[in-house]
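Need a sequence for this fold. Nothing fancy.
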């Protein structure tokens, strides 16, 4: 029986798109399109531009483009910069207790550009990476966040190596080494949430996946049991200290996890751990016509692990506010929305926002949802304690709007994409969304209007 590392390598080398369920194709196409829109919006932020300044230009024949600048970098470095852009706003989609699209898509764009990959190749690479991530997450009964590891950074690195191994058409042996290499490159700490470094987690995972596949193709080797060895990835990164490493056929490419877990598209550019509570506040505010100045206290019941992620109690910047429960409660109640316009330093530091944040009281439960891949409580609950003594309770929220179980319509997906990309692409925004919504017909990554418009 082949070990876990080699089974993943074989899956990457022998992946067949023809065997993939329609739901997986839908999820991959949604994830890629949504990520590219968010990436374009994030490209204007300081973090990716600082990263860009540290990178060395190469000629177009050897490089891949940084979106939306006119710069050409080595494919791994292009994946790094674009990965930071994709994650810096925290507007990218969510699944598997992390952000699969924000690492897979930048790497697939960069490696796909270098390899001349088709739209079908992009979909296949995404699904191969996603399925690998899902398997590894299933094999670990604990939650990576609890040990301080960011799943996007650690599992994302290995998933991206699989995606790039597929795009580079590695042999089984080469792909196995790429997986093993990526296991030593996987890193990222929850302790850096609420800072620029969180978005670097995504960029480095994308970069490392490209690098691992490229090195393996060039003949670089690693231990072919690096995943399952007693000092390998699965045990050293295990929150439970009891990963499921029983020898067996993991049936990669024959049993599919993506139709069940899917892709959860974000409606708010803020940590996903807040989204159910935001939905609850907005619904209660609208139903009861609540004015912020009539509320004495906002009570939130959420999960203990969610609270661990939301470390900033009194944020002073837009970036800090992305990892706060207090801020989105105040923003939703005051402004009736939590969008890009609210996630600014100016809005966060407004006196009325700061004062209302001080009236948000968060309590937690250790209970976890049993039917979700997020380490969240079964529901999030919100109560407004009014100044006249009344208590108004929102309906508990199990899944936020935009989740795989409550999917956005195609029109809603387009609306978010245009909102993110319009300032960068202008008139080309709609055409790009149409291309991304029909990736199976795209002849080459290089045909995407994303590049011809942004790099013109």
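Here you go.
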């Amino acid at each position: 029986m082949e070990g876990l590392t080699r089974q993943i390598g074989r899956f990457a080398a022998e992946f067949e798109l023809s065997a993939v369920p329609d739901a997986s194709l839908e999820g991959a196409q949604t994830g890629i399109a949504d990520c590219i829109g968010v990436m374009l919006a994030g490209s204007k932020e300081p973090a990716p531009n600082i990263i860009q300044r540290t990178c060395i230009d190469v000629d177009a024949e050897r490089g891949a483009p940084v979106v939306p600048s006119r710069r050409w970098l080595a494919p791994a470095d292009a994946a790094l910069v674009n990965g930071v852009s994709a994650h810096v706003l925290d507007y990218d989609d969510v699944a598997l207790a992390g952000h699969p699209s924000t690492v897979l898509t930048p790497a697939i764009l960069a490696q796909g550009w270098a390899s001349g990959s088709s739209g079908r190749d992009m979909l296949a690479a995404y699904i191969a990476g996603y399925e690998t991530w899902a398997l590894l997450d299933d094999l670990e009964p604990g939650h990576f966040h609890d040990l301080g590891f960011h799943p996007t950074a650690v599992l994302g690195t290995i998933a991206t190596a699989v995606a790039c191994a597929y795009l580079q058409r590695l042999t089984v042996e080469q792909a196995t080494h790429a997986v093993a290499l990526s296991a030593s490159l996987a890193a990222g700490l929850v302790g850096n949430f609420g800072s620029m470094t969180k978005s670097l987690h995504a960029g480095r995972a994308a970069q490392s996946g490209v690098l691992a596949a490229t090195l393996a193709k060039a003949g670089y080797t690693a231990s072919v049991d690096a995943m399952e060895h007693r000092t390998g990835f699965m045990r050293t990164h295990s929150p439970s200290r009891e990963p499921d490493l029983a020898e067996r056929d993991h049936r990669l490419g024959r049993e599919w996890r993506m139709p069940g877990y899917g892709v959860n598209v974000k409606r708010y550019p803020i940590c996903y751990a807040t989204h159910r509570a935001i939905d609850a506040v907005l619904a209660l505010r609208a139903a009861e016509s609540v004015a912020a100045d009539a509320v004495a206290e906002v009570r939130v019941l959420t999960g203990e692990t969610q609270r661990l992620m939301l470390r900033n109690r009194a944020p002073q910047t837009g970036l800090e506010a992305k990892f706060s429960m207090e801020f989105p409660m105040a923003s939703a109640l005051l402004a009736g929305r939590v969008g890009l316009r609210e996630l600014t330093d100016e809005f966060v530091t407004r006196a009325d926002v700061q004062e209302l944040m001080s009236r948000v009281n968060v309590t937690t439960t250790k209970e976890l949802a049993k039917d979700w891949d997020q380490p969240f409580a079964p529901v999030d609950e919100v109560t407004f304690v009014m100044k006249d003594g009344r208590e108004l309770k929102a309906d508990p929220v199990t899944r936020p709007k935009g989740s795989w179980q409550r999917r956005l319509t195609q029109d809603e997906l387009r609306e978010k994409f245009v909102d993110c990309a319009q300032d960068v692409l202008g008139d080309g925004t709609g055409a790009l969304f149409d291309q991304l919504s029909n990736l199976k017909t795209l002849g080459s990554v290089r045909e995407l209007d994303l590049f011809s418009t942004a790099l013109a």
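For context: The mean pLDDT is 95.
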